[in-house]
Write a structure and sequence with these properties.
The structure holds 2 protein chains of 2 kinds. Chain A is an alpha+beta fold. Helix content of chain A is 37%, strand content 29%. Chain A is built from 3 helices and 6 strands. In chain B, α1 packs across α2. Chain B has a 3-stranded antiparallel sheet with strand order 1-2-5. The longest helix of chain B has 20 residues. Chain B is α+β, with helices and mostly antiparallel strands. The chains are: A alpha+beta, B alpha+beta. At the A-B interface, β1, α1, α2, β2 and β3 of A face α1, α2, β1, β2 and β5 of B.
Chain lengths: 103, 104
């Protein structure tokens, strides 16, 4: 439904424009540091809780009997963790059109 | 312990030499930029981490799980998150270690 996507480099440009006290290069490094820290923490199983935004955690998926879609052969798929995001209340409310005009 | 905005601010302070005020403000601005993009109907792609998207849900009948009373759930727009393939693979590859530590 979205007609446009904002990328990491555009987020960096938005932040650099809004905070001219930081050189563009520093904004790039800061965004990279934030994302790297979030990624590394999640991989180690640490939850991330950002008030007003949401939380990231890992969910466990049990081992199961799967199938090779090409050959149909049964294969045991090992259990694994998968990343999960739960939006926080402020983000949910700001994104929803409830109470706003619907086009 | 969970990673919070305060911990992310500390990373900017320690790794990049931001002062504490700047670091705290920067973290706020970073998440505000993502929230603001999503609330103006733009999906957000953070390469190496994941993509935040938007999905419109139709109204559907719901139920209060405690009382069994029927309550209609109105149509709404919600945020979705799909982690990047690389993050998914690295998390999956760490499963055994996390399970051996006693799980999450």
């Amino acid at each position: 439904m979205t007609d446009s996507t904002i990328t990491k480099s555009e987020i960096i440009d938005i932040l650099a424009d809004a905070q001219p006290q930081f050189p563009h290069r520093d904004v790039e490094l800061a965004v990279k540091s934030i994302i790297d820290h979030m990624r590394d923490s999640l991989i180690e199983g640490d939850r991330i809780e950002i008030r007003g935004f949401g939380s990231f955690s890992l969910h466990h998926r049990a081992s199961r009997l799967g199938r090779n879609p090409k050959t149909g052969a049964a294969v045991q798929v090992k259990d694994k963790y998968v990343p999960h995001f739960k939006p926080g209340k402020e983000l949910r409310d700001r994104v929803d059109f409830k109470g706003k005009k619907q086009e | 312990m969970a990673v919070t905005k305060a911990e992310l601010a500390l990373v900017l302070y320690e790794e990049l030499g931001f002062n504490k005020r700047e670091a705290k403000d920067f973290i706020e601005e970073f998440f505000e930029a993502i929230k603001s993009s999503l609330s103006t109907e733009h999906a957000v792609k953070l390469s190496g981490f994941g993509n935040f998207g938007l999905r419109e849900k139709n109204a559907r009948p719901g139920r209060n799980p405690k009382t069994g009373e029927e309550i209609p759930i109105s149509a709404r727009r919600v945020v979705t998150f799909k982690s990047s393939l690389k993050l998914k693979e690295r998390v999956a590859a760490n499963t055994e270690k996390l399970v051996n530590q006693g799980g999450l």
